[in-house]
Amino acid sequence: MTQGEEKAGAPDRAGTRRWVRFVRLAVCLVVLAAIWGLVLYGPGAMPDPFFRKTVRAGAGGPDGAWEETFTIAEPVPCLHVRVSVKGAPTPLRLDLDGEGDIWLLRDLRMSPGHASFSCGRNLPAGTYTLRVHETGATGEYSIEIGSRAGVTWWQRLLVACVGVLAFTGGLSLVYLLRTRAGRSSRALAAAPYAFLAVVIAVSSIFLYLLFHEGGHALAAICFGDFDWSRSDFFGFGGSPHSGVKPGVKLASWQRAVQSVAGPMLPLIVAYLLFIGWRSAWGKRVRGERWAVDVLWSFVLFIFLFSGFGPLLPVFGVAPDGDYNGFVQNIPFARWQANAFFIAIAIVNVCLLVPIIAHFERRRRAWFQDLAAKAQQNAGVQGEHDA
Length: 386
Prior knowledge:
Helix content: 55-70%
Distance between the termini: 20 Å
Number of helices: 9
């Protein structure tokens, strides 16, 4: 390459870097806008609830319990319950019963935040009783019960994911059409990679939900406590959850196993995936297909990273329902349970180091490939103009 050609290629490379930065910034702005919308608007109101009440903690009196009844005039196909808790370090416990020995909720523990779920099917008209136990709780909480669920933050997040998928997919389609037409598409060269990254990220999250709620479900099946009609693994109807049968009495150790099975099943799968990921067979399979390598690595990253979730309640940063259900029913001390979760986190850090290093190598290869395609598009455009 002559000196003149090198000088002519320098502006193209600088322009390519500018366009790449522009596309990356645009994608980041879309994601930030989606997050801002979720935080700003929050959960939508439940339409025409049978029961709605906002309570300051302590309203239940010295024993920390209160109850109220409400009436359903006509049969309903399903009841939806939504609880919004602010600043309650001790989870609320809810019971919901109907006439004729109908048990809808029994000792359901709620942590701070928003939760929406369904309970019961084809319920008759009649009087229903809600009992709330709030011993040790502080702050404020509200409870709504109706035949139709309101919009939850998780459902808004799903809409945001669909929007990001549509945005990056549209850019990828434009890039493909312009490239086939022999037109320069340097500004959109990163679009196919961004679309693939979003698809892999969303798929990994849904796969994690499947195994997390599936862990709860497997334990419930073993204890005869699982109800498929009350389950919503992906949270399309409100929030992700695994349904259990109302009125089934479990031993303390069974409740502990059922609580910890959710976060533990993805970790067990992650350890098995890591063994295959590091094996000679796994390296050969990942080396042959770029998409398989990225998907496998990212799923492994998400599953291992989920092991840090229990550290939030361990160090008092944020509460967690699975953690509370585990430590409140174990036959040994809480500090021993905390040591168990900390040990898991240390192991996961050691496993995440090679995965992050692998991502960095893939990132460098991605940028090199992106620059090469941008140069190729520039050359095609030059030939087309000539």
